[in-house]
Every structure is written in structure tokens, then in C-alpha cells.
Amino acid sequence: MLDIIICEDNNYQRKVIEDIIINQLKKLNLGISIALTTDNPDDVIKYVEDRRVKPFIYFLDVELKSEINGIELAKKIRKYDPMGYIVFVTSHAELTLLTFEYKVQAMDYIVKNDLNKMENKINECIKEAYNDYKSSSVKTGPIQINVGNKVIYFNPDDILFFETTDKNHRIRIHTKDETIEFHGTLKEIEEVLPDSYYKPHRSYLVNTKKIKCIDKKELIIHMINNETCYIALRYLNGLLKKC
User: Fold this and answer.
1) pTM metric for this prediction
2) Which positions fall inside the HTH LytTR-type domain (predicted)?
3) What angle do CA 54, 188, 77 make, to 5 degrees?
4) Most CB atoms within 10 A, among 24, 148, 206, 212?
5) Can you give the residue ranges of every domain in the chain?
6) What is the Cα–Cα distance from 67 to 121, expressed in whole angstroms?
């Protein structure tokens, strides 16, 4: 599911934006939440870099008192989240023209001069981003994985399973021919995969189309390439129904 990131260096303005978003999310009941709110663009870059498998909705102040402004931040975000929804918030409408200079695709621009208009625009942006996300091919088309400086696209049907590693926020993807490690969490990955995937254990996310057999006694899944995954007992019935 989509979540929201806010970057605004004015504490009062940031609180105003947060309150508006929280109130709108309660009304909309879309399952969206605020993942990060900060005055530091470096916090945003680090957060997004560690969660490259999911898109976010961004509300970015243009005039950040930092080494980079909000539009430069957006350009950096695009390296890690090319599908994200970027909304610029500014006190100076003329600064929105800079987005063309920096070639940053923005979803919308919100001017801070009218609270009611801000509320309406934020509400519209959240609903539009949510509807676009839900109607997109994110769960049926290729999934995008960032591995180092490379972006690799996988057909979900070609993947056998995902598993956690002993490193924090490191996931291993298993295909029939290879395994690849990348930054992410199973929860984030699960949100962009089709319904054929099931999480039978906290450490595994399995493509049920690629299961060869299930050992109900030993609680082990045997995949078509003879690799194995574990099953937590409480998820066994759910796995059997899914298969």
C-alpha cells in the first residue's frame, strides 16, 4: 500500500500539513499512513533508498533551508522511486516553474496561502494517487528491484520465493536460475505482488504456482527446483487453501 512522506523545514508548516493529512486519511479510510515526516532531505533519501520496492506519495517543500531544495530532492527521489507521486508545497507559486528546469515530473503543486485550498488539494492528491496506484498494473506487470546501481525487472511468474537474510532490510529473491539480494522487506514486496503469492512463514514469501509439494508433517514446502521453505503451523491451512 502507498504511504506518505513529508519534508518541510518550517516546524509550524510541517505540523499544519501533517494535521491536514491525518484528518483526510481518517475520512478517506484508504489504509494509507504517514511513513516519515522530517525537515531534513537526507532523511528522505535514506528512507526511500532502504525501501526501493514500493512507491510513496511525497509532499515536499520547495524552499528547503538545506544544501538542496525540494525540487533537487525530488530529482534524487526519482532514482529510487520512479513511480512515486510527488507533490510540491510552496509559498511562492512562481517557483513551480523550476520543476521544468530540473525535469522532475510532479503530480501537483500546492500553494500555502489558503488553508481551505490546501486541505482540498491535499485530499485530491491523496485520492488521485491512490486510485492511480490501485488501477495501475503494479500487481500484474513486472516488478522493479533496485540492486546496487542496476534496476532489474522480474516477471512475478518467474520468481519462486523471497526470503529474509540475517542482514537488516536485506531480502533474497530466488528464481529458477539465480538468487539476488537487495534492500527491502517482505511486507513491502507483498504489496506489489499478485495474489498467487503467500507468506507461510515470517521469513518467506512464496509463489504458490511454483510449489512442487507440501510436507504437512515436517512443515516444509518443496519448490519446483527442489529448494525448500518453512511453514509456520498457523499458516498451513491458509497455504493449502491458496494452493
Assistant:
1) 0.64
2) 143-243
3) 25
4) 206
5) 3-135, 143-242
6) 28
Angle made by CA atoms 44, 154, 193, in degrees to the nearest 5? 70
Instruction: Measure Cα distances from 8 to 73, 89, 171, 191 in Å.
Output: 12, 9, 31, 28
Most confident of 16-30, 76-90, 125-139: 16-30
Helix runs in the chain, H state only = 11-28, 41-49, 70-80, 98-102, 115-135, 186-190, 236-242
| Mean of pLDDT over the chain | 88
User: Residue 133: what are its φ and ψ, rounded to 5°?
Assistant: -65, -45
Count other Cβ atoms within 10 Å, centred on residue 239: 21
Residue 198 above 90 pLDDT? yes
Q: What is the CATH number of domain 3-135?
A: 3.40.50.2300
Helix axes 11-28, 115-135, angle to 10 degrees: 50
